[in-house]
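Sat 14:20. Reprocessing the chain from the morning session after the first attempt stalled halfway. Input below, unchanged.
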Amino acid sequence: MKAVISWIVIVVFLIGCSRKEQKPEVKTLPEKMDSVMAVVPDFSGVVLIAEKGKPVYHKAFGYGNMETNQKVDTTSIFELASVSKQFTATLIAMLHGAGKLNYDDPIEKYLSVPYQGITIRHLLNHTSGLPDYQKLMDEKWDKNKVAGNEDILAYLKKFRPSILFKPGEKYSYSNTGYVLLGSIVEKVSGKDFVAFCRERIFIPLGMTSTDIRTKMEKDSLHNFAKGYIYVLDKKRYVRADSFPSSNYTIWLGGRKGPGRISSTSTDLLKWDRALYGEKLVGKETWNEISAAAKLNDGSFSDYGFGWMLRKDSVLGKIVYHTGDNPGYKTEIIRYVEKNKTVIILCNNAHEKFGVLVKGIENLIRQR
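Finished this time. Tokens:
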């Protein structure tokens, strides 16, 4: 009997030791991401993380229409806002590659503008010094009408707001520059900007949910995620387009170049993959697109052609862009040396959007 008890004690002891020696369970990326998402519990949108083009995390959160309780899903369409600029820049690069224009051409070669010494390159990398067209239009435009690029160009010529600094002197983010680029695309290609986007990018890449849509077209889509803003006094989210401050998206609803593309996470991953190959532009052209702008004093900015740029000691070169429209925050981040991509589309302009971006990058840094 004593021998049996001794053996039981030994077995229990060995089992205990074995358990102590077992390594703690390692969480998967989806499990870790769920922990990150817990920091933004009321986030509404889609998060996609891909490695070598394959999604390793792709989830939807929140509501595309809070009034009808329609949930967001991974096929929902979002406003991209300024993430659109990379498409405009790529069209310019494609025209350059076809010998239709040069980056250092003066813009007056293509457009009638009251400013001298500005090149296409200055427009691409936000070093033009051009004044803010939206401020001008807000002050002068009849908001009962919808303004397009021709109207914006006409008002710049008519009212001639002062240049902000000498071209190439410094970096200053300029939506005006990308309106002019949109018009240059039309002038050089001989086609409407929207049609040219479809013909040269959206259709060839199979981006079937991506387009530049009118308000009526967006309203007709059942899976278009409406934009929301949190109102502290009401303690709830309210439709962004119910605020007068959002009206510019309507009366400037005809502009082309700086924004207005709407898309899905899946379509943006197709776009990301195309940039690794040569279906749209060659390697040399991509190197130009993703190179930092050189300023007049010999220093460099952190912006290329339609892309923001930064370096990380672990992740290497990072090419990315943010977007911000009433109710929307968007970002595409390409860790090009690691062949990893993050796409975040948010339709409730979450105040912790930046925290979410940092949390995701920390996870990627650990992989």
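Residues 27-366 form a domain with the Beta-lactamase fold (CATH 3.40.710.10).
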